[in-house]
Amino acid sequence: MPSYKNKGILILELGNIYKFANFLKKTEIFNENFGPDFRDEETFFSVFAIFFPAATGILAGANISGDLADPQSAIPKGTLLAILITTVVYIGIAVSVGSCVVRDATGNINDTIVTELTNCTSAACKLNFDFSSCEINSCSYGLMNNFQVMSMVSGFAPLISAGIFSATLSSALASLVSAPKIFQALCKDNIYPAFQMFAKGYGKNNEPLRGYILTFLIALGFILIAELNVIAPIISNFFLASYALINFSVFHASLAKSPGWRPAFKYYNMWISLLGAILCCIVMFVINWWAALLTYVIVLGLYIYVTYKKPDVNWGSSTQALTYLNALQHSIRLSGVEDHVKNFRPQCLVMTGSPNSRPALLHLVHDFTKNVGLMICGHVHMGPRRQAMKEMSIDQAKYQRWLIKNKMKAFYAPVHADDLREGAQYLMQAAGLGLFFYFSNLVQKNTNFENFEYFLKNNLLEASTQFQKKQGKNTIDVWWLFDDGGLTLLIPYLLTTKKKWKDCKIRVFIGGKINRIDHDRRAMATLLSKFRIDFSDIMVLGDINTKPKKENIVAFDEMIEPYRLHEDDKEQDIADKMKEDEPWRITDNELELYKTKTYRQIRLNELLKEHSSTANIIVMSLPVARKGAVSSALYMAWLEALSKDLPPILLVRGNHQSVLTFYS
């Protein structure tokens, strides 16, 4: 049975004086020992596992890199030279001992051949020794049996013991010193809070005394096993795991093409690193499959924990570099791909200002863009340029961290402008990259609505925590008043795919004629089924164009009174001057021209109160106004009249580009 002790003697005896006298006469012994002779169910890899710890000093130079004057030059030269020297020594010891000692011997010098033996072809027979009894009974001598064979063949036996002690102590001390320091550095990063106590150091050199004690106890536990042939495969398994990770890390760093990764070794090749990692993993399984599997589970568990917890440390890892590279390459690749209705995703520029100042708007948009589409939080900074630029620099990091901390998958995009309208224009022109460009612009409603006439496309009722909690078994009411490409239907569907909204039912409201209500309901049900939109009810409103109540008309007139021009009551020159200076005001002619549309918004508000007053959210087609014909004040008054005294309402205006398809 191969012995770790025997192996240790063969490795560590560097000062041994070998017996090469009469070597040429013992070629028979060398020839007989040259091939393998595995016994007791041992295999090549079981013996390899015992021998492997002898070759684990390859990182010795890297572990003391901080103490080297020129580590970039010393480590590769020293490591390669050490490998060369130890390889020659190991092979020399194996050849010399394999030429001097047979595998099995009785240890009795009187076991010589007295009579001529037939069918005896062993090297011992040729040298006039009879060890045939070892084939029947176990012998205590020979390469396979005697752990002290190196001392026996050496010129000075105590030198062997001295070599073993010195090599063992040096290796043990190196591990006892380096391992706690590495573990201390790991604990300082607070990656695993349970080990935070081992980050504490003592003395001028910040010595990890607690780590020393832990390392000592672990080493003591292995020593108490008291069987080196059992310990060696376990050690080999963990060494191979660490080498596999190192090789793969090097390969991964090269794959990421980070400018900071600049290996100086002339013969470095990333594919050799990958091959080394694969070979280490394979050998781990061949040596001991269950130990290898356990090691993989432990390493994978630690990796998943770090990935999930996302500790607040920045190592400049190759994972970050590869993530950037992949994002860049895929963004460039996508820029040459035309949009297709099957791949439509909501990509929203949300005018949040400071993200934490409008949580309702932020949470609602996040609910239908999370893991699906792009969300950009736009913030317009106004005021003196120097001060605004300084604030932008601070806010960029501050609010992006806030988004990450609150698990908001969004980007923060600040701009500087002289006023809010100009800043909104800048954001609309520049937000996004390639296909990652926003298609929807969302703004939270403001009561001082005349400042928002240029860019308002969607209207949200303010409710600071409305969409942060579970929405229960209520309804999402969709008022699909005209075909806008399907965006008004898609957003409610995306909401119901999220955990907070999954118990809500979708109700669809459409306009129609009283004498065709059943027909319109069946047609809409068929259409929604083809679109694979799950709905609970369809309601056809046949009275959508009737005149609203008189008191509501009066309330609307009172609301718009401060914003009317009343040009008929003024002189022509004064009226023209006011039109030029305040183009957003409502003229008498305009109010009369769009009376029907005004009544429609007031009537819709009445119907909304009647049918959707208990809904969690209302998603509705945004009224369309002809550009340049309808003043901003009148348009905002329509929106106010439409959304007054209602649950949160999302007004959606698609561009008539289809976002729904019958096909998967």
UniProtKB/TrEMBL annotation:
Residues 19-349 form the Amino acid permease/ SLC12A domain. The gene is SLC12A2. This is Solute carrier family 12 member 2. GO terms for molecular function: ammonium channel activity; sodium:potassium:chloride symporter activity. It is a multi-pass membrane protein. It comes from Urocitellus parryii (Arctic ground squirrel). Residues 358-434, 457-664 form the SLC12A transporter C-terminal domain. Keywords: Chloride, Glycoprotein, Ion transport, Membrane, Potassium, Potassium transport, Sodium, Sodium transport, Symport, Transmembrane, Transmembrane helix, Transport. Its main location: membrane. It holds the Pfam family AA_permease. The chain crosses the membrane at residues 44-66, 78-98, 156-179, 212-232, 238-256, 268-287, 293-308. GO terms for cellular component: apical plasma membrane. The keyword Transmembrane applies. Gene3D superfamilies: Amino acid/polyamine transporter I (1.20.1740.10). InterPro entries: AA-permease/SLC12A_dom, NKCC1, SLC12_C, SLC12A1/SLC12A2, SLC12A_fam.
